[in-house]
Amino acid sequence: MNVSLWLPSEPGHFKDIHDWNVFLRENITSIAKDQLNNKTIFSRAMFLLLNLIQESPNLSVSSLRVGSETCLRKMIDSTKLKAFIKIAQNSKVRLQVVLPPLAEADFAGFGLLQSLQEYSSSILVVANDLGTLYKARVEFQYDVIAGRLLWKRKRASRFFGDELSLISSNELSEWQNITYPEWINFLGVVSLEIDLLPQGVLYSDERPCAIHFPWTFISYGRVCYIGSLELKRLDKFKITSPCNNECIRIQHAINDESHPVPILRSGKGVYCLCVPKDTTWTQNKSISNIIIDLRRSPG
Amino acid sequence: MNSDKSSQIVVGIGGNLLPKDIVELIKVGANEFFVGYVPSTWSDIYGFATSPNRRYWKVSSFTNFKDLQVAIDVIHQHQCKVSLAINELSYSSKAIKLTLDIAEEAIRAGIDAVIVADPDILFNVHKMFPKIAIHASGEMGLYNKCAVKQAASWGVNRIVLPRHLCISEIEILSGVSKQLTLETEAFVMSERCCFEGAFCFPTHGYLEKNFCNDLVGLVPFQDSNEITDLCLLKKIKSHLEDYNDWRSHEATSIEWLGGECGLCAVKNLKAAGISYFKIVGRGIKKDTLVKRIQAVKATIRDAESNNNIAFCQNLIGDSQTCQVGYRCYYRD
User: What is the 3-state secondary structure (H, E, C) of A199-254?
Assistant: First the structure.
């Protein structure tokens, strides 16, 4: 199974994708073992990844990705981006650059798409809103992937295991009848990204998709809940409020290991840790690759 | 009726309203309405908590054809228009068919436009009912010029702007909409959410509280570990109290407001090119809607001649609320 690694913001000493393959196995194993007695949501995420690696010996890193699906301020600068592009080029793969939903003001002050044009054959743009998808594809002629914020299926993170039986079978089947959004095709995307769902069902269309693991996206707000931590009361919670990237340091989570679908709030995004019963979901033929997030927290 | 075509008040209504209630809303200033319609062909299968229209309670929608027909007739008799919301973010193939049946029934009853969020529903509606006007819901997530252009190319006639935009962003989107001969609609009253409707995927309607309330009890972490620094914990606790003030609809003493308002931005919204002012209201009581419409209408009228911030604050009647700004739709 192919793996796309979502990398932290520093390229580090890695030269090519082989180094990341080694990292994936050795470091996750090591980190997870270090956290044997730690029951936080973050260590649980690490153990889920460890389990996936142990149960799926054929996992192989085939692509790299950087960027943010929730906030422009979490994007890396163009110098670092070019360093990542070089690593990807050395490995003969394309770097996936993830963009958050972008409002017009973000476009105006954000020359990233433009600055990357000379590398357009070396990158894939992962867009998470309709306008960014259109702009990247039509105005800049990038190859684009539709990110998981564009896969607008219900995430039943509020129902845990047996509680799902409280929902009528028809309603549940409505949530579980996972179809491919046809409109995506009109925009010429390369592929679509989806989530592993808390309601325990998998995408059943034949068209291949990439699937995120272990964090499932639930919600997004343009106003960050933590970014204005240091501001005065009257200046807080504005779209344009400045921040010191507090979201990188501070997150909020359910800290109860018995909670089957623990929730994590990270900056502008809300996620749950998807805890499948086993790893048989990796056998689904519609999954083209698994996106594994190696950052400290999603977003 | 408000004869000023450049400032139309659009009000959401639920099946709880009687025809005489609708007439009263028109008399106090409503120009246009939007409704949900959940007939038994849907509710017998899915109930109401799985919805075709982004509202998950029975009271928010009309539930039988006769009531819908009567409401539409009353609205038309008063030279007003009414749209049908079928603005769920996505549908299964089975639900798409049922939703298109709902649209077909509503169009037969005389509905003037449909409000959509899912492009697949948009394409189907456009193909099956080429003469019906299509409004892109705020839930469609049109945040930039490219998105507006895309929606226009798909046959959309009106853009309902997402809730969380700055006036300067609205100005740009309204400008490009005008070039494309699209109408633009902006929220001015009630139910601002802390999340973006276009990217919010949890369930609603099954539990007593909304999803955003589930997040109140989360524990803070720093660098993946529980925070032990008492000063930092205190600062975060105080910050989250502010956040809950900003987030919660209940954090206001002005019940009729329904949480949030954008009244003092009306003048700037008009200058930015907005012609349709949206009041959220599906399932809300008539008397509350009357107050909301009166406030918006008075503000629109005042905005013609004055800088209406003081006027709005007087209408709201709670200077503290306006001063803090946490109940504002447009703070930037």
Answer: CCCCCCCCCCEEEEECEEEEEECCCCCCCCCCCCHHHCCCCCCCCCCHHHHEEEEC
Omega prior to A214 cis, within 30 of 0: yes
Q: Do A149 and B45 touch (CB under 8 A)?
A: no
Orientation angle between helical segments B286-303 and B309-316, nearest 10 degrees: 160
Higher model confidence: residue B11 or residue A295? B11
Of A105, A128, A132, the CB nearest to B168: A105
Is residue B272 classed as helix, strand or coil in its secondary structure? coil
Contact residues for B227 (Cβ-Cβ < 8 A; gap 6+): A250, B220, B221, B233, B236
Strand pairing partners for B226?
Answer: B221
Q: Higher confidence at residue A22 or residue B292? A: B292
Q: What is the arithmetic mean of pLDDT over B284-289?
A: 96
Predicted local confidence at residue B88, as pLDDT: 96
Q: Which residue has the higher pLDDT, B5 or A237?
A: A237
CA distance A145 to A261: 28
CA pair distance B224, A38, nearest whole angstrom: 10
Rg, C-alpha atoms of chain B:
20
- What is the percent of chain A with per-residue pLDDT over 90, rounded to a whole number? 48
Contacts of B3 (CB under 8 A, 6+ apart): none
What does the pLDDT read at residue A182? 85
Across the interface, of B95, B118, B149, the residue whose CB is closest to A174 is: B95
Every domain of chain B and the residues it spans: 8-191+249-324
B158-160 and B183-189: which strand pairing?
A: parallel
Token pair belonging to A27: 């470091």
What is the residue extent of each domain of chain A?
Answer: 2-223+267-293
Q: Which of these, A176, A11, A153, lies nearest to A82 by C-alpha position?
A: A11
Identity of residue B255: E
- Other Cβ atoms less than 10 A from the Cβ of B238: the count is 12
Query: DSSP state, A278?
Result: S
Of A181, A249, A263, the CB nearest to B218: A263
CB of A183 closer than 8 Å to CB of A139: no
Query: Domain B8-191+249-324 maps to which CATH number in 3.40.50.700, 3.40.50.1000, 3.30.420.10, 3.20.20.70?
Result: 3.20.20.70
- The answer to whether B239 faces chain A, any CB pair under 8 Å, is yes
The gap from C-alpha B321 to its chain's centroid, in whole angstroms, comes to: 22
Identify the band that residue A22 occupies on the pLDDT scale cut at 50, 70 and 90.
Answer: confident
Encode pLDDT of B219-269 as tens digits: 999 988 889 999 999 999 999 999 999 998 776 778 788 888 999 999 999
